Amino acid sequence: MRIGFLLNPVAGMGGRVGLKGTDDKVAEARARGAEPRAPDRARRALDALADHAPDADLLTWGEPMGAAVARAAGFDPVVLGTPDDSGDDTGAAIDTDADDTRRAVTAFVDADVDLVLFVGGDGTAADVADALDGTDTPMLGVPAGVKVYSSVFAVSPEDAAVVAATFDRTERREVLDIDEDRYREGDVHPELRAVASVPVAEQLQSSKQTASGTVESLAEGVAAEIRSRPETTWVLGPGSTVGAVKDELGVDGTAIGVDVYRGGDLLVADATEQEILDALGDDNVIVVSPIGGQGFVFGRGNPQLSPAVIRRCDVEVVASRAKLDDIRTLRVDTDDPELDERLRGWVKVRVGKFERRMMKIV
Question: Mean pLDDT throughout 227-231?
Answer without folding.
Answer: 96
